[in-house]
Amino acid sequence: MLEKPEERGLVAKVARHLNINYRTALRWWNHYKETEAIPYRKSEENSGPKSSLTTKHNEYLQSLLDNDPQLFSDDIMESLTEQFEGFTISKSQLNNHLRNHNAHHYQEAII
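Predicted structure:
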């Protein structure tokens, strides 16, 4: 439906159909025309909260998951808090981090 909305003047109709703001649909369409790529998570717009995990935490996570990629979130959280004194992280933060930064290790079994 988004292939050629400008030819028919249907950006507003497409926006209503997708239940999004007209300007959002227009921005997405203009981005698509310029790059021929579907816009997805521009870091400056979707930065979200900053991760509490440092480079050392990431390296430790990587080695932990290299040794046992079938670990559950609870086991990973326990191992992190044992390894790094005073470190705390919620299960949702950990799963979000694993999904976004360790995608090659992430599996549904971790959740």
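Summary: The CA atoms of residues 29 and 73 lie 39 Å apart.
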